Amino acid sequence: MRPVRTLAEALGAGALVLDGGLSNQLEAQGCDLSDALWSARLLADGPEQIEAAHAAYVRAGARVLITSSYQATFEGFARRGVGREEAARLLARSVELARAAAAGAGEEVWVAGSVGPYGAMLADGSEYRGRYGLSVRELEAFHRPRIEALVAAEPDVLALETVPDVVEAEALLRAVEGCGVPVWLSYTVEGGRTRAGQDLAEAFAVAGGNDGVVAVGVNCCDPAEAGPAAELAVAVTGKPAVVYPNSGERWDARARGWRGDSALDPARAADWAASGARLIGGCCRVGPTTIAALGSSLVAGGDGR
Predict the structure, then answer these.
(1) Bridge partners for 280 per DSSP
(2) Number of H helices, E strands in the chain
(3) Which SS3 state, helix, strand or coil, does residue 18 take?
């Protein structure tokens, strides 16, 4: 059901379970995601599949759904011959599909409009490197139109996610100024630093004094990074942390495939909550079964609802 509380109010009462990887659930449903638009292609070609994927996570206990707009940009759609008006409609559809999937839930379900990094539009793995050679002003200009289109569809929060470096974080925070929708900021990290190699404490600090930011943390990273990052994010910003790591497998951008084995132990969710995480879920290769197990871990630890 549609939430009656703001997300910030809910986080003040305890941890919420995020959904998992949308792409792997879509693939499990038989969808072909080989296109450069990835799951965003289905906003036009298979919206019912996106709604079904969201619904699978609701049934698994997710109370925050992240929209399918991660790789949806005006530039990316333009390469497919989709004009700006239609692209804006498809971005709005991403929010509507998540909202529709949440409608049948007996508990509040929040919808987070996904704002992926510039590198996601390039579809070459650049979000795992950052340092695009663009200025804060240039990145802000890139992100702002998509943010405006998502905000018009009235999500409960914007997920500024998989951010690889501080420059892009600063651009995103500028782009959402005055938008009227709260945000969370989530870096993708490796070895306790941003993917661009920057100090993580300094990266978190850019959101510390921003009242529009309701949570800060990490996603699309190794599960071992989640707990330490959550603790650091809380210490630096005084805000709740958000963590939703990958399964532990690694993305091979050249081969467009995953390598390695899963290393995500759902029992760690209670530890992440103890470190200050209040939004807890999974990213790539984390499906509904694991999300349900994460939720069970939180309940067992006295943190989940």
Answers:
(1) 17, 243
(2) 13, 12
(3) strand
| Residues of the chain with confidence (pLDDT) below 70 | 251, 253, 255-258, 301, 304-305
pLDDT of residue 298: 94
Element (H, E) at 274: helix 269-274
Q: Are 273 and 279 in contact (CB under 8 A)?
A: no
Amino acid sitting at position 160: L
- Alpha helices for 31-83 (secondary structure H): 42-45, 47-59, 74-79
Residues contacting 254, CB < 8 A, separation 6+: 125
CB atoms within 10 A of CB 5: 13
**Residue 301: predicted pLDDT:** 67
Q: DSSP code of 211?
A: T
Nearest C-alpha neighbor of 18 from the set 56, 85, 50, 65: 65
User: Under a CB-based contact definition with an 8 Å cutoff, are residues 39 and 50 in contact?
Assistant: yes
Spatial separation of the C-alpha atoms in residues 75 and 227, rounded to whole Å: 36
Tokens 């600090």 sit on residue: 205
Tell me the C-alpha distance between 50 and 54, whole Å. 6
Encoded amino acid at 196, one letter: A
Which residues have a Cβ under 8 Å from the Cβ of 238 and sit 6 or more positions away? 208
Distances from the Cα of 254 to the Cα of 27, 125, 128, 251, 258, angstroms: 19, 8, 13, 9, 11
pTM, entire model: 0.95
Helix, strand or coil for residue 60?
Answer: coil
> Closest Cα partner for 188 from 269, 254, 250?
250
- Strands across the sheet containing 64-66: 16-17, 277-280, 241-244, 213-219, 183-187, 157-163, 110-115, 64-66
pLDDT of residue 152: 98
**Residue 297 in tokens:** 């871990």
Q: Which two tokens stand for residue 250?
A: 């690694």
